[in-house]
Amino acid sequence: MPLRWYFVSLVFRFEPAASRAARSARKSQPVEETWELYQAISRAGACAKAKKVAKVACATPSVNLKTGEKGRWALVGIKECWIVYDDLTDGAEIAWFQHGRMTAEQVRRLMGKRPSTRG
Predict the structure, then answer these.
(1) What is the β-pairing status of strands 4-16 and 70-83?
(2) What letter does residue 35 receive in the DSSP assignment?
(3) Which CA distances in Å does 110 have to 79, 95, 103?
(4) What's the pTM?
C-alpha cells in the first residue's frame, strides 16, 4: 500500500511539576489541541507515529505562562485522525466537517467574532 497523508488532532494538558500535584490535578490547567500531518500506510500507523512524536515532545520541561508553574505537557490522546484525499498543494481540502442543519444565528455563533474570516 502507498503512503497517504493523515490529518491528526492531538490534545495536550499541562501538568505542574510541583509537589502539590494531587491538588493541581483537580484544578483546571491549560489544554491545547494541535493539528498535524503524518504520512503512513494506514490510519493506525499515522496515530502511532503521532503518539511517538508527541511523547518525545512531552519530555521537554515547560512553564505555564499564566501562573509561572513549571511542569510538562502530557498527551491526553488523539481526538481525530482523518485521511487526506487530495494531493497536498495550495487549496487542498484536508478536512471537512458536517454540522447538520443550522439556523442563521447558529451559523453566526459558529463563525465567532472574526469578520475577516467571513466570505
Answers:
(1) antiparallel
(2) E
(3) 20, 17, 11
(4) 0.72
Find out whether 27 and 61 touch, Cβ atoms under 8 Å.
no
**Residues whose CB falls within 8 Å of the CB of residue 63, separated by 6 or more in sequence, listed in order:** 69, 70, 71
Strand partners, 40: 4
Q: Using only C-alpha atoms, what is the Rg of the chain?
A: 18
Q: For residue 15, give the nearest of 23, 3, 5 by alpha carbon.
A: 23
Residue 62 CA to residue 37 CA, distance in Å, equals 24
Query: 38, 46 in Cβ contact below 8 A?
Result: yes
Contact 15, 29 (CB under 8 A): yes
Give the pLDDT of the chain (119 residues) as one tens digit per residue: 899 999 999 999 888 887 555 555 557 788 888 899 999 999 999 999 999 999 999 999 998 887 888 999 999 999 989 999 888 888 877 766 777 788 888 888 888 776 554 45
